[in-house]
Amino acid sequence: MVNKDNFRNIDPYVPGDQPDFADMVKLNTNENPYPPAPAVLKAAEEFSAGRLKLYPPTDGGALRRELAAYHGISPENVFVGVGSDDVLAVIFQTCFNSGRKLFFPEISYSFYEVWAELYRVPYCKIPLKADFTIDPDDYIGKENGGIVIANPNAPTSMAMAAADIEKIIAANPDNVVVIDEAYVDFGGESVLELTGKYDNLIVVRTFSKSRSMAGLRIGYAIASKELIQAISDVKNSINSYTMNFPSIEVGKASLAEEEYFRTTIAKILKTRERLVKELSDLGFVTFPSSANFIFTTHKSVPAKTIFEELRKKHIFVRFFNKPLINNYLRITVGTDEEVDKLIAGLKEILNK
Ligand code: PMP
Predict the structure, then answer these.
(1) Mean pLDDT for each consecutive 10-residue tract of the chain (352 residues)?
(2) Ligand 1 nearest atom to the CA of residue 85, by list position
(3) 84 CA to middle of ligand 1, Å?
(4) Do residues 276 and 289 lie in contact, with contact meaning Cβ atoms separated by under 8 Å?
């Protein structure tokens, strides 16, 4: 019998369910309810499978170049990966080896703690303020081995001002500060431009949310040339050919459809406003969201009960059975039709 004591012992990250029912309303993993841009669908159809006999470029090739052009920077400042999870995992392996504690908010994307454990990075979870916002002063003047902050934060949905983030970056010049901007297109203030000013800043983005491409798996980081080189060196030492040809071609196509991108986001923001209002009428209290999801609690009915009752109706939202947040629901902003079904389901559950 193999001795399992020799295995890496890890409390794994638990992704949101991917249920598969024809009648389901899926508002549990912050996917975009709208399809990818028409140019993406066209590029996917036109992709020539004959190219698959070759290895793809190790650096993301044309996708990296187009991303650089899109943001008005050099390709040397861009690192592409298989979703931002892949990008963040490589950053954790590359940048946090000082032996000092990595700082990240106590309530945030739960993968940060999993990577810290997996890669044996010591860490400190910094409590949020009572109103679930992040206090920038907690990250200033304190010895640390790096900082990771999601902005907007998840699952709270709330954003920090770019000026506050800049204070944190400026106060930690020796350490890498990672700002995970997975949801920034839905209302947050990006610090992407600060990558030209601070060589300790890495901004991470994804195609999964605002570009409706969670299934393709594309994420990227923007940082100084030196940091990008260091991250690339680690990635190439694990798996050089991470970005496959379809991802490169199809991902590139989405960058050309700015109008579709903006229109889709505007629709989601409009539905978000309506969702918050209708939830309020049903007795929910919701944090001000800058993301494509909301974080909400009901005045009298426990979140777990609502989550379970909704699930029986094939309406899926996210419930975290964790201290501090176990009376909240995270609900992805879907289409208006999906929100109608959610509200109708909630009215039945709450007898309204
Ligand atoms: N960062 C945050 C804050 C997220 O919520 C997610 C989505 N689970 C990710 C990163 C990863 O997204 P992806 O790997 O699809 O780019």
Answers:
(1) 89 87 94 97 96 97 98 98 98 98 98 97 98 98 98 98 98 98 97 98 98 97 98 98 97 96 97 98 98 98 98 97 96 98 98 86
(2) 14
(3) 6
(4) yes
Q: Is the CB of 346 under 6 A from ligand 1?
A: no
Q: Which numbered atom of ligand 1 lies nearest the CA of 218?
A: 16
Domain borders along the chain are 4-36+258-350, 38-254
List helix spans (H) across the chain. Answer: 38-46, 61-71, 83-95, 111-118, 162-171, 225-236, 245-254, 258-281, 303-312, 336-349
Half-sphere exposure of 227 (CA within 13 A, CB side): 27
Atom of ligand 1 nearest to the CA of 219: 16
Domain 38-254 class? alpha beta
Q: Which of 31, 84, 107, 149 to mutate to test the pocket of ligand 1 (most atoms within 8 A of CB)?
A: 84
Is any ligand 1 atom within 6 A of the Cβ of residue 208?
Answer: yes
Residue 17, pLDDT score: 83
What is the distance between the alpha carbons of residues 289 and 294, in angstroms, rounded to a whole number? 6
**Reported CATH class of domain 4-36+258-350:** alpha beta
Nearest to 228 by CA among 74, 112, 114: 74
Q: How far is CA 316 from CA 21, 25, 274, 312, in A?
A: 11, 6, 19, 9
Other beta carbons less than 10 A from residue 29's beta carbon: 16
- Our answer on whether the CB atom of 82 is closer than 6 Å to any ligand 1 atom is no
pLDDT at 14: 86
Task: Establish whether residue 221 lines the binding site of ligand 1, counting it when its CB lies within 6 angstroms of any ligand atom.
Answer: no
pLDDT of residue 82: 98
Check if 150 has its Cβ closer than 6 Å to any atom of ligand 1.
yes
Select from 110, 27, 64, 51 the least CA-distant residue to 335.
27
